[in-house]
Amino acid sequence: MKSTALFSKTPPLKLFFLASIPGAVSMLASALYQTIDGIFVGQFLGATAFAALNLAMPFVIINFSLADLIGVGSAVPISICLGKKQEGEANNIFTCACLMIVGTSVAVGGILFAAAPLLMLLMGAQGEFARLAVQYLQVYALCSPVTTIIFAVDNYLRICGHIRGSMLLNILMSALSAGLEFLFLGVFGWGIWGAALATCSGMMVCAVIAFIPFFRKKALLRFCRPRFSGRMIRQIVACGSPNFLNNIAGRVTSIIMNAILVRLGGETAVSVYGVLMFAEGFIQPLLYGMCDSLQPAVGYNWGAQKFSRVRAIEKCCFAASGIVSLLAAAVIALFPGQITALFMPQAGPEVLALSIAALQLFSLTYITRWFSFATQSYMLAIEKPLPASLISVSTALVFPVLLIGAFWPLGLTGIWLNFAGTSVLAAVLSLVILKKMRPELKRPDAGIEAA
């Protein structure tokens, strides 16, 4: 089905299952290779390597978040332009965005490669711990020009109606990365740099495959002669800022947390925090996949002024996010020991007890986390970057930093409680934003008089 017909004519509930479920599966597959990365490093290379991976990971994600900024930031105006029947402008934004991603990834990758030793030193890491973290980060930095684009092309495939193809591509990337990592670590016996190389290799192969429909002119979007403008760049940056700020602010928070944990509990505390991050890295992509997959449809109908259809689609998004989030809370609370064993199979009784307590407190996060997540996605899809950015930065940085101070007397328990406290504050902020924007969100469709 052509994407225009899919977005404009398919009943909202059916559209949800056609677009959102494959999107969730895609992001789940994407999350799986990151989780498997942590499991393989912990199983094959040991606790120090696992701690080093978690120390370097925030910087890896910061690098990828720049591509996500441009990819998501361009996807919103592209969808709206298509809804307005402005195909030429949509193609220009697509072309310019791809060039911007390649250019920024070259620059940022070079900076991260050169700065990796200093960054790990500033984090407080020393000796083998620091050396392994530097190795892991530098491989990602070197591969940056040919890997970061995968985070953008996934959005473009969904816009063009290749929803199933996007899902299959993410499954292939997960399987390829996992297979290569097992080969590099389990068979060849390579070090932590082999883990990073495996993941990057999977990304590179899938990035090449993903662009085949665009180069063969078999997709709705086409490459054209780029026409850059200040207005277009500002639009891309504005629409991509909520996700970008969420990633950057979240990584800054992780860096702060890691620096505190290195001093409070050393490698053990960093490893337990890493288990929480891998659990979050498995759940959040599910929520992101469901909501983000609906953004092209929401943006298209918002551009076409079919506001009642936008509201119907978003109701499905909120309901599904709530169900997934509550199920995740239950699983984490009930199986903390098993989750810990995946990443730290040799954990002693004290480490296991610390991790179980941390995971049980962390599970409270997902009682309310779904609400702010769905609200942020809603605001972004209808080109309201300011409220989306407010939710994003508050959730990822402002609230966690404030709660670090508030929970400081609790020591490590305060760090584990930080996530749940942040989630409650973010839900309250999201509710205030939705109530304030209620008149605009309740507008009648074009050509229909308000009652």
Q: What is the element string, with H for helices and E for strands? A: HHHHHHHHHHHHHHHHH
Helical residues, percent: over 70%
- Which secondary-structure class do the elements indicate? mainly alpha
Q: What is the rounded Rg?
A: 21 Å
Number of strands: 0
Note poorly predicted spans: none
How would you summarize this macromolecular structure in one to three sentences?
By secondary structure, the chain is mainly α.
Topology, pairings included?
Elements: H1 3-9, H2 12-45, H3 47-83, H4 87-122, H5 127-147, H6 150-159, H7 163-187, H8 192-210, H9 212-215, H10 230-303, H11 307-334, H12 336-343, H13 349-362, H14 369-381, H15 385-406, H16 412-436, H17 438-441
List keywords for this structure.
451 residues, mainly alpha, 17 helices, 84% helix
Walk me through the structure:
The chain is mainly alpha-helical and 451 residues long. Helix content is 84%, strand content 0%. α4 runs antiparallel to α5, α10 packs across α11 and α10 packs across α13. The chain is globular and about 65 Å long. The relative contact order is 0.13.
